[in-house]
């Protein structure tokens, strides 16, 4: 199996909302890898005719290293600042992200896909394919949009647009759409695949047909999953896709629509009317938000605690481990991984008491066993 996790947009330090997602998914990964090791151990000792041993699970994560926020954050810096280049800024915060995950004892993915490294090879051909089969169009603004109605016209109940989106009222649904581009879109639900370069934007590519620009956020994951899938065609298939619950709509909803549109035949291939009934990735894991003082922890609300702050140990002792306390909190003491969790220093220090009791018990057990010979 292959497992894809939506990774960070790297323009600022990661906070505990991100940390909970990646720690929860790391726990799932460790369970899967443990199950795999057990299974492999069992099959090699079996007296039954041996079946080929499947390869270990493959974990893939993307890094969004080009995006509105990255460009705006870099542009707001002084020109003499080394982080005033969008790519330098992205690399800086990506390095900080991996360092944070290492300190939280989160295993690194086997494959990291950076958007900037896939624009020409994977993302542009993917968008072109959607245009060719009639599920995307270039608007008068020069931006390329996904055509939700065209997709719906050529699809079926299993691949309908929005199937993953949580039930939301129509007003709520539309309030979360990109209203700024209403005039150029064919349908309010259409979303951007290729953003035409705006004046002064420092990071861009030249598309053969649509000119200078950069990919929209949603297309990157569908296209990079496709690229990795082709690379590992013989051994792996993506069966799990994960991320924070706020990605369910619109990001994952749009990823699914793009991927299920990508396999539709070209418009001029009128003889082929068979529509694919196969869904894209069958299993989705969404982790809940972290709340603090009654509000969702977020960069925009500026109410976040950084991972760096979490891992500062006020009272270091031989048993202290703020990373393990946080992991235990994520494992169960913050409630279900799917629901919201309320963070406070007290909540994590309760995890610390439980963990230290467990560690003492294990250390005592070891000592008694060694004394007993
Ligand atoms: Zn994604």
From TrEMBL:
Membership in a protein family: Belongs to the class-I aminoacyl-tRNA synthetase family.
Organism in which the protein naturally occurs: Phaeodactylum tricornutum (strain CCAP 1055/1)
Domain tRNA synthetases class I catalytic intervals: 2-34, 59-319
SUPFAM superfamilies: Nucleotidylyl transferase
Pfam family, one: tRNA-synt_1e
Entry keywords, A to Z: ATP-binding, Ligase, Nucleotide-binding
Gene Ontology cellular component list: cytoplasm
Protein name as annotated: tRNA synthetases class I catalytic domain-containing protein
A single BP term in Gene Ontology: cysteinyl-tRNA aminoacylation
GO molecular function, one term: ATP binding
Keyword Disulfide bond: no
